[in-house]
Request: fold
Amino acid sequence: MEHKSFQIETSLLQLISPEQAYSYQIVPIGSDVTSITFKTASENISSLKQELQVVLGKEILLLLETEDNLQQYLNKNYRKSNALVSESLHYSEDFLLKIILEAKNIGSSDIHFEIFEHTSRVRFRIDGKLIEKYVVPITEYAIIVNRIKIMAGMDISEKRLPQDGRITIDTDLSDFDIRVSALPTLFGEKIVLRILSKDTTRIQLEALGFTKEELITYRECIKKPNGIILISGPTGSGKTTTLYATLKELNNDNTNILTIEDPIEYTLEGINQVQLKENIGLNFASTLKTFLRQDPDIIMVGEIRDGETANMAIRAALTGHLVLSTIHTNSAWATISRLIDMGIPSFLIASTLTISVAQRLVRKLCNHCKKKEEISLGLFPKNSSIPENLKHHHVSVGCEQCYYTGYSGRKAIYEIIPIDKFLINQIKNNVLDIESYLEKEKIPTLKSNALELIQQGETSIEEVYTLLTE
Reply:
């Protein structure tokens, strides 16, 4: 182990909980069948050793470490929870529940259970990146998988086909749902748990990452009584959160809002939400047909995946409804090409599309440790030009505040194109090159917004590198 990195193997980390590590001010650095070796900065070695032997049931060896180094070890390897865990759950007695609650409390979005030939592991996705948290004995892996499948209402005897399920966690302190996906792999089933929060108090358009001008433009478009609002971007770019924030703003006692989602990630009071179930024919297109007979004002379709769903969304917009949805494209304007590829006539797109939005989620640099450096040409992609006013940038370093990742939290960046009369004519005539128009109208693109974040020192070049290519 390299001392400077302060990194400890996952198999050692899981010997104690984060609470124990911080409470006793210890970090494990070695173990065998009968003993565990810890580093500590405590001067009271004798009493600490006795207490740990009682708590952990093993011979304890303690090595002295400096206070500063010990804090580096703790902060880099053990992430403190944001909330307390209810004692009624017997947290320490249930490994699976412990993992789920730990992931929820530290802000993880997904939990991955994976098995290989000689080992199996558990990883958490935090701020968009996967971090290994536990190593699980091969002999225990099947037991954990079966427990998950039972909790999710899945068939434990079926190990050859993919399965989906749902778990509801309802405790004194936590109330949330989990979407479960099981996938057969070479050495066993891989399970992914997506944590779905029911808490919508922090979902506000102002908090997502819109600039003042973008927010004004977006709000003007969503106030229109009909038309289609499309949000594009890759998986995990925050599209659904933007849709929920939009629905929350539009939701009132005079409006009938219907949604078809896969999955329902947030529960919104006053909105009629439908969970997609492909296996019984409850898909986006068929549900949209029913929605039109439910006297809706606003319809939200989780995703436009095919021509049939796109056609139904267009039909709903043409008959006087406001339709919100997501689509997988790389930019706001590429959405038009994608709809044409799905078989939608360009004149119908021009008649119904109100605004096209592209977005990405970008990790923010930690304000406590980011470092300012001068710009050099090699930092940018070969075909990307560096703005003249960009003289400096910031790089990630890592400190105890950000658990030595160099980043803390994420924000969305947007590319917003309202469809005006000029663009309506461009779409009708299949003229899809509008770069000069965007420059003339000074409409910020994903690239220009990414450069602005670099300029402000909010993110690193590395984090937005793929957005900087022209």
